[in-house]
Amino acid sequence: MFCLQTEESVRRNSESEGDAESPEHDPHFEPVLSLPLVDIQTNEEDEEELAKIRARLYRYDTADHEWKERGTGDIKLLRHKLNNTVRVVMRRDKTLKVCANHFITPDIRMNVHCGSDKAFNWSVFADFADETMKQELLAIKFGTVQNAELWKAKFAEAQEIVRTKCFLYTQDLSSDDESSITRSEDTDTPEPKTTDKADEDSKKDTLESDGVVLKLKELKVDSEKSD
After folding, report:
1. In this predicted structure, what is the pLDDT of residue 12?
2. Which candidate, 118, 109, 116, places its Cα nearest to that of 141?
3. Coil, strand or helix: which one is 68?
């Protein structure tokens, strides 16, 4: 009987002490290592966001001849502030792994996918989602018809920006075309022969190096242009 009372009293005392200490007990442990903050670069710092819509992306597997899901997340249109290029970037939820990363060109056609008013497909020559250039046939499905129409409108707007403002499509190619025509005419036209022995000796010296001959032809083309 005495032992039972002793055990009961010890139990009660321990519970009362625990209840008394619990509101005041707040342990604090200093970290063993102090890790510095790291600024993560996303390569989107020089770009502005034209659109950001949640969707599900698919790619066509030519080996298995079927559509395979690439991921669900926010698909974005990013316009570069300096050169006016626009690219499509999409990252998967949670992992943030890139599942689409390619530039928009004016010749991309956005097609209705499988007759759905919420899905489109398009083909790209160079997609860098896997950090290597791949030709892909992509399809995207949105949750609402409104989001699908917004995507199509923003994609067309991005194509117009690239076509009218990107230096790759607005630079004047007439000078390059003229240069190529002049060079072809120069190579097809034989050089006039000379009877001067000194000139013949100098030509022999220049023919010893192909690089020198090419440089002379370039200088000749430039002089004809300046005249």
Report:
1. 62
2. 118
3. strand
Question: What is the tens place of the pLDDT at every residue in 174-194?
Answer: 445 444 433 434 444 344 444
Nearest CA to 103 out of 140, 66, 128 is that of: 128
> How many angstroms separate the CA atoms of 225 and 217, rounded?
13
Whole-number pLDDT of residue 57 = 98
Rounded Cα–Cα distance for residues 167 and 170 (Å): 5
- How far is it, in rounded angstroms, from Cα 147 to Cα 119? 10
Q: pLDDT tens-digit profile of 37-62?
A: 777 777 778 899 999 999 999 999 99
Length of the chain: 227
Give the separation between CA 149 and CA 140, rounded to whole angstroms: 12
Task: Indicate the pTM of the whole model.
Answer: 0.60
Between CA 24 and CA 33, with CA 29 as vertex, the angle to 5 degrees is: 165
